[in-house]
Write a structure and sequence with these properties.
Radius of gyration: 20 Å
CATH superfamily of the largest domain: Metal-dependent hydrolases
CATH class of the largest domain: Alpha Beta
Number of domains: 2
Distance between the termini: 20 Å
Strand content: 15-25%
Helix content: 25-40%
Largest sheet: 8 strands, mixed
Order of helices and strands: EEEEEEHEHEHEHEHEEHEHHEHHHEEE
Number of helices: 11
Shape: globular
C-alpha cells in the first residue's frame, strides 16, 4: 500500500481539504483520510508539502505535433519512426506538466490510435479520434481525413468505428493551421454534419466539432454534436458569442473546449496574429467570454491544443487553466474543467479525474497551495500513474 500525505488536497470536483492522506493499492485509490491518519504498518508513506489532486485531463492535444510553428503542415514529411518519436516526446511533455490523460483530436495514419492500443509504461492514458473528418482540401487535410458527400461521410464514420476510435472529430470550419482554409467559414452543409452525427450515435460514438465560425457553431448545435472545439463564434463583425447562444449550448448539454492558453512570452504564429486583428480579438477578451459562458451554464472542458506551434507546445496545460481562472471562473470550477469535467467529456469519467475510492490512482502534486494560488499548477513536483511515481 502507498499513502500520500499532502498539506492540501482537491478532490477534482469542488472539495478543498486542508491536508489529506490518499491511500493507493493495486493502481487504484483506496480512499481518503484526514492528514493525521496513521497508515497500517508496512505502508510506504510519501510526505508532500504542497497540493495533491487528480491527474490533469487535457481534452485537446495533437500528439503528432512537434511543438513548432508549421507542425501540422510538415506531417506529410514525417517517416513512421520520426512520427513515433514525436508522439513519445509529446507524451513526456504532457506528463511533466501533470497531465495523466490526453484526448488526441487529430493524427495522421491512425498513429495515435495505434499508440493507444499498444501503450508504453510511464505514459499518459490516451483517448483518440484518429484522422479528423474534413472537406477536400479542408482544415488538417494532411492527416488523411478528406471526405465529400453524405454517403462518404457515413462511410468515414464506420471506418472510425472499425478502428475503435473513442470519439469522432469533424472540422466544421476552416482553421488557422491550414493555409487556404478560412476560420470564418463553414466546411460542410447542415445535412452533412447531421449525417456524421447520426451515424456516429448509431454506432455509439460521440462527436466533437472543430468550429471557429459562428455559422459552424450554429450548424454543430443543430446537428446535435456532443462537443465543440474552440467555439470562437467568429463573424464578419468580430466575435458574437451571445447570451442566447450560451443558453442553447447549455440546454443542449454540449461540451465546449475553448483551447485557451499559450506559452508565456512566445509570439503566436503570423496566421493567428492575423486572425486576432481581423476579428478584433485579444486573448484576455477570449478568456472573459469563456468565463461568461461558464457562468451561463455552458459545460467548459479544458484543453490547450498542444503541439501545433511554438506558442502551443506540449506541456503548457497549466496556462489553459490559469487563463480560464483569470477570465473569472472560480479555482474549483477551473480545476474541475481539467480533471473531473474533462474526464467525463473524454469518456473516462467513471475512473479518472477524481480523488475517490475505486478510481485510477493518477495523481499530480504541485508545490504550494493551489487553493489560494492557481499558478501553483506551473510547479509540478510529482506525478503518479496508476499508483506508480512517474520519472
Amino acid at each position: 500500500m502507498l499513502a500520500i500525505r499532502a498539506r492540501h488536497a482537491f478532490d477534482g470536483v469542488d472539495v478543498w481539504l486542508e491536508g489529506a492522506v490518499v491511500l493507493v493499492e493495486g493502481g487504484r485509490i483506496l480512499g481518503m483520510e484526514p492528514i493525521g491518519f496513521t497508515p497500517p504498518d508496512g505502508t510506504e508513506v510519501v510526505e508532500i508539502d504542497g497540493t495533491v489532486m487528480p491527474g490533469l485531463v487535457n481534452a485537446h492535444v495533437h500528439l503528432c505535433g512537434d511543438s513548432r510553428d508549421g507542425a501540422l503542415e510538415r506531417l506529410p514529411e514525417f517517416s513512421a519512426d520520426h512520427l513515433d518519436a514525436v508522439i513519445s516526446t509529446a507524451l513526456r511533455g504532457q506528463l511533466a506538466s501533470g497531465v495523466t490523460t490526453v484526448r488526441d483530436l487529430g493524427d495522421p495514419s491512425w498513429s495515435v490510435v495505434d499508440r493507444r492500443d499498444a501503450p508504453r509504461a510511464g505514459e499518459p492514458h490516451i483517448v483518440a479520434s484518429g484522422p479528423p473528418i474534413t472537406s477536400v482540401g479542408g482544415h488538417c487535410w494532411m492527416m488523411g481525413g478528406e471526405v465529400a458527400g453524405v454517403d462518404a461521410l457515413r462511410a468515414a464514420v464506420r471506418e472510425r468505428a472499425e478502428r475503435r476510435v473513442d470519439v469522432v472529430k469533424i472540422m466544421a470550419s476552416g482553421g488557422n493551421m491550414t493555409p487556404g482554409t478560412d476560420v470564418g467559414a463553414t466546411q460542410f452543409t447542415l445535412d452533412e454534419l447531421r449525417a456524421v452525427v447520426d451515424e456516429s450515435h448509431r454506432l455509439g460514438l460521440r462527436v466533437t466539432a472543430h468550429a471557429h465560425a459562428l455559422a459552424a457553431v450554429e450548424q454543430a448545435i443543430e446537428a446535435g454534436v456532443d462537443g465543440i472545439e474552440h467555439c470562437t463564434c467568429l463573424t464578419a463583425e468580430g466575435i458574437d458569442f451571445s447570451s442566447d447562444l450560451m443558453a442553447r449550448l447549455s440546454r443542449a448539454r454540449i461540451d465546449v473546449c475553448p483551447t485557451l492558453g499559450r506559452a508565456p512570452g512566445v509570439l503566436p504564429p503570423p496566421r493567428v496574429r492575423e486572425m486576432l486583428e481581423r476579428f478584433n480579438m485579444t486573448f484576455e477578451t477570449r478568456n472573459a467570454i469563456v468565463a461568461a459562458a461558464h457562468a451561463a451554464g455552458v459545460c467548459i472542458v479544458s484543453g490547450d491544443d498542444g503541439g501545433i506551434t511554438n506558442a502551443k507546445p506540449h506541456g503548457i496545460f497549466a496556462e489553459a487553466l490559469i487563463g480560464l481562472h483569470t477570465g473569472g471562473v472560480s479555482a474549483s470550477d477551473t480545476l474541475a474543467s481539467g480533471t473531473s469535467v474533462a474526464a467525463q467529456g473524454c469518456g473516462v469519467g467513471e475512473r479518472k479525474g477524481r480523488l475517490r475510492a475505486g478510481y485510477d490512482a493518477d495523481l499530480v502534486v504541485v508545490d504550494g497551495d493551489a487553493t489560494t494560488d492557481i499558478t501553483a499548477l506551473r510547479s509540478v513536483s510529482a506525478v503518479f500513474l496508476r499508483g506508480e511515481r512517474a520519472k
